[in-house]
Write a structure and sequence with these properties.
The structure is a single chain. By secondary structure, the protein is mostly helical. The chain folds into two domains: 65 residues; 32 residues. 94% of the residues lie in helices and 0% in strands. The protein has two helices and no strands. The longest helix has 62 residues. It is rod-shaped. The termini are far apart.
């Protein structure tokens, strides 16, 4: 048997095993890339949902707080009550003198 034939068989087996390992590694990398793409899409969807929720919250905040007209009516009522208190204090001063 010729040594060249043995070397060719050995190199062929090594290349076959190397190709098989390379194929396994590439298929694993491809699977990981697809999983990463799926997670990226889920992340984008989650970020869109969070953005929508915060936008709705920001738009609903003015409805939850005091409006200008409510504040004006409140301040008028408070001023009226303070005026009444001042009148009562003045009446007390007059009655004591």
């Amino acid at each position: 048997m010729d040594y060249q034939l043995l070397i060719n068989i050995a190199v062929g087996m090594i290349v076959l095993l190397g190709g098989w390992v390379f194929k396994l590694i590439l298929s694993h990398i491809s699977e990981l890339k697809s999983r990463i793409d799926t997670l990226l899409m889920k992340h984008v969807d989650d970020m869109d949902e969070i953005h929508d929720r915060y936008t709705k919250l920001a738009l609903s905040l003015p409805d939850k707080y005091l409006t200008k007209s409510d504040f004006n009516s409140f301040s008028e009522r408070m001023n009226h009550r303070f005026d009444r208190l001042e009148e009562k204090i003045d009446d007390l001063k007059k009655s004591n003198n």
